[in-house]
Amino acid sequence: xxxxxSAALIQWIDSDYCPGGAEKMRNEPDKVDWIRVMPxxxxxxxxxxxxxxxxxxxxxxxxxxxxFIRMFAVTGVHHRYFxxxxxxxxxxxxxxxxVFAGTTVQRGSLWWAYHHRHHHQHxxxxxxxxxxxxxxxxxxxxxxxxxRRNFPTDYTKIxxxxxxxxxxxxxxxxxxxxxxxxxxxxxxxxxxxxFAPGLGTNGPQLLVWAFFVSTTVLFHGTACINSMAHxxxxxxxxxxxxxxxxxxxxxxTLGEGWHNNHHRYQASTRNGFYWWEIDPTYYGLKVxxxxxxxxxxKDVPQSVLEEGARAEHAASVAAxxxxxxxxxxxxxxxxxxxxxAAAAIAVATVNAAGxxxxxRADGPAVHKDVSxxxxxxNRPPTPPASNSSTQx
Length: 392
Ligand SMILES: [Zn+2]
Ligand SMILES: [Zn+2]
Description:
By secondary structure, the chain is an all-alpha fold. Helix content is about 60%, strand content about 0%.
């Protein structure tokens, strides 16, 4: 017990410290490690500091700005670069990206990428560390990150990243960047108090808002993709998991809300597959590519876009059929709802013609195919495979 507690204390500083071996730790049952998780609890508790430091417009705006700037780091760096390698950069560029992503305080980029690739391999199956369908909402949102077995990074599963010692170092000592970042914010507040007293802020106030509040909200915004994006929204693609597309989540996470798209085709730099699916992370990466800092952004294949368009069409036909069925069951004539006057005129015209208009026994073949497709959509979903081999 005492050995475990002292190991957890050392792990605050050195994430890779595992006396019994990382593999043994990963095979333990899920259990919150209260000592190990104290820095994370401290992050949340720091938000209460607003009771003492008060607020100022500059402090609140800094918190909002740092939320969105660092959400870009979560989605554009942790996710679309390290987890999926959806674009390229130089070795030094990659190091800078890892430092930038370190300011998000979501552990190291390699820890992030390892767990995320694991999620894609086992999405919504028993092995998935954060599926709301397997472990419940709260565990998928916040519980899994506090579990002892989810602390170590399995470097053997991310060999493409583990071969860079500078990335492994940042991942191992994952508190270094956050501490430097928080210190810089504190001294920025001190400088503003000295040189621009009219702004009404100071070191402690800026630290509480721009670091503690902003980082805590950033964590929960990100965590919504693990929890909410597998519960809320529409499923365009019939993936093996229960991932969904949600406009609200896309706005709050700069494009990650198009999660069903992403589960269908993970290699693309963009998660919003069509122009109307807003994806600010992609726009930011596109602009960055014009500077030459990153390159080789990957697009969505035409075949996947066409598959999406077919699925949308089948879904709209199915929705129309369901609506017609419900009107029929409730005894309403569709003519009461859909342009009643025009429909009445049309009926009158047909009747006046003495029913001489020839009727086709069957609709055109294309309609038959579509209704069959729609019928498919109405079938209950097949349960997700426990050992899906969808590769990240
Ligand atoms: Zn997912
Ligand atoms: Zn992903």
